Protein: Putative endonuclease
Amino acid sequence: MEKPGFVYIVTNKRAGTLYIGVTSDLVRRIYAHREALIDGYSKRHGCRILVWYQAFEMIEDARYREVQMKEWQRAWKIRLIEVMNPDWSDLYPSLL
Structure:
């Protein structure tokens, strides 16, 4: 049985540093970002605010989308966020 997956974007502030990731458990992963439990780029830059995500039926599709998005221009990523979340609100509470 295939696992579902999510691609997500976390940031440190509106139009700030963007981090794109993939996970099979969005709530757990964003909690880890918020609590700075994950060493690396997102922790160094304070990316703790969930501003965008997309669900997939299969984790492999989410991974493919993540690779695509990491190649995008910054302006495209910002536009994607603003279509779903024009105020750059933290979407984490809506997941709980």
